[in-house]
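Issue: copy button drops trailing tokens. Both records pasted manually instead:
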Amino acid sequence: MNAPDTGLAPQSFKSDIKPVWCPGCGDFSVLAAITRALAMLGLRPEEVAIVSGIGCSSRIPAYTTCYGFHGVHGRALPAATGLKIARPELTVIVAGGDGDGYSIGGNHFLHACRRNVDLTYLVMDNHVYGMTKGQPSPTTEPGWSSKLAPGGTGVREFHPLVVALASGANFIARGFSGDPNGCARLIAEAVRHPGFSFVEILSPCVTFRPDQRAWKDLVRPAPVEPTDDPARAARRLMTDDGFNLGILYKGRRAPYAPAREPRTALAELAKEFAL
């Protein structure tokens, strides 16, 4: 289905607030990808709500002209779920990071995948807590040594795409902030796909993980076409090294659609409480 031509350019979705990310942060490119995707989809700012939690990437709602909700740490997904169910006509996008999404927000991540509400979750993964001075995050490699974790954590890293598939996400993809046009196409596809769409975006932290500049030489297009077979997707994701880009799974589950009762006028509701 072709998107309606609203005539809006990506710049129409950017607010006048200047981002405060570190120079060179991958999140600048992710913001550009989001605005390009919204223009590609033919949407208008008032038709979109962007919800976030806490962290560097969670600043994104303030940098757009869409409706925005900046929530508390780890709670972006339940807020977005409630919003989408209450206002199904809105395009709801959730922006977060690996700490916000997989640590304190990990349980919400599981159940958002399971519920399969029609929204899109973008996680900017840099394998570190960038806003709070470089602590290891759930996706940090066990041997990464830093001032806050000398010698590394020794703890196996979290595998979000595998967990998302097992929990019921209906669309799973991975992008790289160094390719904003490719990310824009992935985000647009994720929004179009019905149900819960999850896009991991590798977004290097140049301040606390300068070694991640090497990611640009490691990422490559996934060597296989997207599949709608969960078993086949599971085999691929379990052997994935974290640098295959593109759509990795497109499921066929019907999105969660709660029964909507006719709205009752306020005066009628008041009668039930009259003494």
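Record 2 (pasted manually too):
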Amino acid sequence: MKKLLFQTDLHCGGCIRKIEAGLNQLPGMDRWEVDLAHEHRLLSVWGDKIDPQAVQVVLESCGFEAKAEKP
């Protein structure tokens, strides 16, 4: 299973609820989580066929930024 990491500007549970529906609908998504305690507010996404750009589009459409981290 592939894992992708994104730096975000999410800052609270309300932000996470705003992106939840969009992320849950992405094809190839197994699960995701956000580490709000990390300095870069890391979004971790797991799945076999996840399109990193699709993840960024979901966050941007909700008003947030997501920058893919290098593996």
